[in-house]
Write a structure and sequence with these properties.
The complex is a heterodimer of chains A (278) and B (556).
Chain A lengths: L4 H17 L1 H4 L36 H37 L1 H16 L2 H15 L5 H11 L2 H14 L3 H8 L4 H37 L11 H8 L8 H27 L7
Helix pairs in contact in A: 1-3, 1-11, 3-4, 3-6, 3-7, 3-9, 3-11, 4-7, 5-6, 7-9, 8-9, 9-10, 9-11, 10-11
Chain B lengths: L1 H22 L8 E2 L11 E5 L15 H10 L4 E3 L13 E3 L2 E6 L5 E6 L13 H12 L16 H5 L9 E5 L2 E5 L7 H4 L10 H6 L14 E7 L3 E6 L13 E5 L4 H9 L5 E3 L3 H9 L7 E5 L2 E7 L9 H10 L2 H7 L4 E3 L21 H10 L7 E6 L3 H15 L4 E6 L2 H8 L7 E7 L5 H9 L18 H12 L3 H18 L2 E13 L3 E2 L15 E2 L8 E2 L1
The chains are: A mainly alpha (278), B alpha+beta (556).
């Protein structure tokens, strides 16, 4: 079997998804504290041992269970945020590209405005504001934050693509035969941007995984005791000398997940046919 | 996106490097040792650090831990505390003569008479006279931004003077150049402690006027050290005061305080031998140091005059029911708290830390989840309740909040954690309509029961905003006991009254009583004569450096 980067990425991603789905069977309760037995006499986290293959954290919780639970949390949030970005980005891109004129100008300036701000700073600001507004759940603010600022690249690429497509014969022909704008956009343009959107979405998942970790790291992720990879690194950072597994385990998980989606995106990009077919 | 892959490999490499770095640590120990001098040696400069900036050097304003520590070494007060002796929890909290050679209290407990040491001088060589003490106190009363005016409100005429209704304070009497007498409206056993706080140190009016009334950066030192240089935000350089009243001390030529040094950076510098003292050692570093045989002899702990826990607003449901508050106290496992803090804590049964007069020796609430459920059911919450818990962003608070969350979940109380910045935290807990349930702590102003109880549980301390009694606990009987204790001429009677308050608060449980913190200090092997002090934190008068004949450190 030819191990293309795409396949390697796909296998890694599927493995992570499988781990997340199998969590109830392959891992314990990520929030279960064992302060009596899961910490050394002095109160330090314990290294990898039978019962805790990746060691325990500062509250005596099983690091393996938390990494597995974090796979579900982190991937779930990254995918949900990406879907939100895709919807916004595709709608804006199609609209701007097809309508042209002042609509295009306004929407693209909006993209410029969003892009003009440093990504992480806006994310932190937005997440902090959303958190104040909605206290019950820490998951929704993170998804909305990442979804709302991650759509600009998709919108730009889709718009550029549509600008080219709308001049092409099949679109001109459809318009000449009396098809309305909605029909042309949904039936002819949308299916021609699907390939590039999927590639961008895979990249966006990777980016959102990192961004979610960053938000969790600065304390704006889901509240404790929820396990996310970023939060685990945050909680364990001061133990980097005496209990390095607290940051190495979730750190490696982030790296694996990000690399896998980057490989998938790369493979998709290479495979994508640069020519339109309508 | 190949760029992403390269980044990823760098992250992996970094993670591996950190993991390997962690394995190398067993070979480390102190880099230097003591030279072996048998008697204290004069000379040398000691370097220590703080994780924050020193906000001010004005003794009337400084109110934070670091500011007070620095100011206490610059300014000498009438009264002082005895030295901290390892193993004796009451040492360091007893008043002893300072600038005052002796002091007496009148039979009615309303007049304090202080006699100044002969020959006491400021760092500029000029004599300290009784009038300077009265001037310093009048200055505090006239400063609206001084947190200390409230400690002087019992002085006869102080209120009217502060309000601008009169030009003098009749309660401040200058009997002669070396005798200073303070008259109070009513007997107050806690007053003497105010005369051991740096804000009451003598100040010369002409000096203060010449510096425009602003002593933030200008220091008229009377203590063991004087200000040499202050690169604000970076380092504070203190030098020996040649005119200090005790000619034998301090032994050090000077002390340098590095500011804004994060705790983990401080730890690395200490290990590298570039810091002589390390305090506030974080849990992971403390565990690591305690496990190194080479470091263990150079670690010291001391119970801090503090208490930590969770405070509840007793005026709002479900916390208006004492059974609920007691249930939460029973739900908490205090052994877990001590372990999570790496042993740097003593379980608390109430406000007063060990060693403080007035403490009733009660056992802390036992860990009894079943008992807690019974009490909750009696109070009408058989299925528990949901509640928000507000805490602050630091490592220990984060761990303890999650431990509390698990303890309360075990009795059916579903607690969500909200982390707020310090200003936002103080704002919400100080208002009656703010967060009803939060982390809380108290560090004494002076080592006396009044400094623990009155600001946190007397109904007088309830305000509309920034209420220091932030459980809004108002019980007339407790108010009366606290007032009687302060006025009691006989210390033994006062102790009995404070013990009653301690027991009553234990039962009423306006807080989930948590723990008393333990100060941690690590020192280089050549640092001698140092012990963390319960009040002064760092008192440098007896500290000396065991260096070789040429004043150099001896490698290990």
């Amino acid at each position: 079997m030819n191990l293309s980067p795409f396949r390697v990425g796909l296998i890694m991603a599927l493995a992570i998804v499988a781990v997340a789905l199998l969590a109830p069977w392959i891992a314990g309760d990520p929030a279960a504290q064992d302060i009596d037995g899961g910490l050394t006499v002095r109160g330090a986290p314990m290294g990898p041992h039978a019962g805790a293959p990746l060691g325990t954290d500062t509250l005596g919780r099983d690091v393996w269970s938390r990494v597995v639970a974090g796979a579900g949390m982190s991937l779930g949030m990254a995918v949900a945020a990406t879907m939100m970005s895709v919807v916004i980005g595709v709608v804006v891109g199609l609209w701007a590209g097809y309508a042209g004129g002042w609509v295009d100008a306004v929407l693209m300036r909006l993209v410029d405005v969003v892009l003009a701000f440093p990504y992480l700073l806006v994310a932190i600001l937005l997440a902090a504001l959303l958190r104040e507004a909605e206290l019950e759940s820490g998951v929704v603010p993170v998804i909305v934050t990442l979804g709302v600022i991650g759509w600009t690249t998709i919108a730009r690429v889709v718009r550029a693509r549509v600008r080219v497509l709308r001049q092409q014969d099949f679109v001109v022909a459809a318009r000449a035969s009396g098809a309305g704008g909605f029909h042309i956009v949904t039936r002819h343009l949308l299916r021609n941007v699907v390939g590039v959107v999927i590639t961008l979405a895979a990249l966006a998942i990777a980016q959102n995984l990192l961004a979610e970790a960053a938000l969790s790291y600065v304390g704006l992720g889901p509240p404790p005791p929820q396990a996310t990879w970023g939060r685990m690194i945050f909680d364990g950072q001061s133990y980097y000398r005496s209990a390095p597994w607290l940051i190495v385990a979730p750190g490696l998980a982030i790296v694996l997940a990000v690399v896998s989606f980057n490989l998938i995106a790369e493979g998709l990009r290479d495979a994508a046919d640069p020519h339109a077919h309508g | 996106m190949p760029m992403g892959d390269r980044c990823a490999f760098r992250v992996v490499a970094l993670a591996v490097a950190i993991a390997l770095g962690g394995c190398d640590r067993d070979s480390r120990g102190p880099r230097y040792r003591g030279a072996g001098n048998a008697t204290p040696r004069s000379g040398g400069t000691l370097t220590c650090s703080t994780s924050v900036a020193v906000p001010t050097l004005d003794p009337a304003i400084a109110y934070d831990e670091v500011g007070v520590m620095v100011v206490a070494n610059l300014y000498e007060t009438l009264l002082d505390y005895d030295a901290a002796v390892p193993g004796d929890p009451t040492s360091g909290t007893r008043l002893v003569p300072g600038l005052a050679e002796r002091w007496t209290v009148s039979a009615d407990g309303r007049s304090y008479r202080f006699e100044l040491r002969a020959g006491a001088r400021y760092a500029d060589g000029r004599a300290i006279v009784a009038g300077d003490l009265a001037y310093a106190l009048r200055r505090v009363l006239k400063m609206p931004d001084s947190p200390y005016g409230r400690l002087l409100s019992g002085i006869t005429g102080a209120g009217a003077f502060a309000a601008g209704e009169r030009d003098d304070v009749p309660g401040l009497e200058i009997a002669d150049e070396r005798t200073f007498v303070v008259h109070l409206d009513a007997a107050d056993a806690a007053f003497a402690y105010a005369m051991a706080m740096p804000f009451s140190a003598p100040l010369r009016e002409d000096f203060v006027v010449a510096s425009g009334g602003d002593l933030r950066r200008t220091v008229l030192a009377s203590g063991p050290l004087r200000l040499d240089r202050w690169d604000e935000g970076q380092r504070l350089v203190l030098a020996r005061n040649p005119h200090y009243w005790d000619p034998a001390r301090p032994f050090l030529d000077g002390v340098t305080v590095l500011e804004n040094l994060p705790e983990n950076t401080a730890f690395l510098l200490f290990e590298a031998g570039r810091l002589d003292l390390l305090d506030h050692v974080a849990a992971p570093d403390w565990i690591w140091l305690s496990e190194q045989a080479a470091w263990r002899p150079f670690l010291d702990t001391r119970a801090q005059m503090s208490v930590f826990g969770s405070r509840m607003n007793v005026t709002v449901p479900p916390f208006d029911d004492a059974r609920v508050r007691r249930a939460l106290n029973l739900a908490v496992n205090r052994d877990h708290i001590v372990k999570l803090l790496a042993g740097r804590a003593v379980p608390a049964h109430g406000m007063l830390p060990p060693g403080l007069a007035g403490r009733a020796e009660l056992p802390p609430y036992p860990h009894d989840p079943a008992g807690a459920r019974v009490l909750l059911a009696e109070a009408g919450y058989p299925d528990g309740f949901a509640v928000d818990y507000v805490t602050v962003p630091n490592d220990d608070a984060n761990k303890l909040a999650q431990s509390l969350q698990a303890d309360l979940a075990a009795v059916g109380v579903r607690m969500s954690i909200r982390v707020l910045s310090w200003p936002a935290f103080l704002d919400t807990v100080g208002r009656k309509d703010g967060a009803p349930f939060s982390m809380t702590s108290w560090i004494m102003d002076y080592p006396h029961a009044a400094s623990f109880f009155d600001p946190r549980f007397h109904s007088r301390a309830i305000g509309d905003a920034s209420s220091s009694n932030d459980s809004f606990y108002a019980v007339p009987e407790v108010d009366r006991l606290l007032d009687d204790a302060r006025g009691a001429p006989d210390p033994a009677a006062a102790v009995a009254l404070y013990q009653q308050v301690d027991r009553r608060l234990h039962d009423d449980a306006p807080w989930i009583w948590g723990y008393h913190a333990v100060m941690t200090e690590a020192m280089q092997p050549y640092v001698k004569g140092f012990a963390p002090h319960p009040v002064w934190v760092r008192d440098f008068r007896d500290v000396w450096l065991d260096l070789d004949g040429r004043g150099r450190r001896v490698p290990r």
